[in-house]
Automatic annotation (TrEMBL):
Keywords, alphabetical: Hydrolase
GO cellular component, one term: cytosol
Organism of this sequence: Dermacoccus abyssi
Tree of life domain: Bacteria
GO molecular function, one term: magnesium ion binding
Protein name per UniProt: HAD family hydrolase
Amino acid sequence: MASSHDDERPHLVASDLDGTLLRSDGSVSARTGEVWSALAGAGVETVVVTARPPRWLHHLSDIVGGTRDAHSVAICGNGAFVYDVADRVVLESHGFEPGVARGLVGDLLREFPNAGAAVETDRGMYRTRAYPDQHVGEPGHDTAVGDVTDCELAELPDDLVVGKILIRDEAWSDDAFVADVTQCLGERGVLAYSGAGGLAEISAPGVTKAVRLEAWCLERGIGREAVWAFGDMPNDLPMLDWASRGVAVANAHEDVLAAADDRCAANDEDGVAEYPARRLL
């Protein structure tokens, strides 16, 4: 994380969304919106790096889109997709081939027969009817569901890129479920835990927030020594570790709090706004 360059002014501030940049109700506070916009005016680029899929970012265009420059781009799906929110175009997709995804889902559902399964792809979500929807009523959700197809995942089309596999069983505790899914998965994917109860989020090998953020920065000539990153959950740890300064919000998972270079106020107290505002604006 921290390096000898840690005190240098960053060229880029990267932030997770849920539990970090967004408040607990999924909204963006006026203060956070003000500071996030002001950073661009101060010569500091910003990018969101989120587990959310492309379809669930459109209502946040004031934060992650709305201009025809780097600020219209979001890294989403835990690094599976690079998405231009302004143009609503998936620029990059990194994930499983559909046949591989179908095989993995089949193995996991045999191991967890009461679970529901879904996949996030470059063309939206495909989900089994048993997959529980816990986001009804949250900001942006009810428009995002227009890109959801209910089907048996054995029917998944062959011309998709599967960015993320989702397995959810609400009867399981988080730690036990993640541990058992990890054992079943082996080295066939990367299991990310973002805090949702009874949910395992699986990316293809080598696909993480950190890998995609590093590649995105390299394309723009931005070295890790010039990047600050904010997060709250274990799926943010590789990104916080890669950045020169990894900052945990006060409400973060205990593992993230222990590993981060620094801490800021909680998401409901606009921590991701106040921390750079005091240091950069």
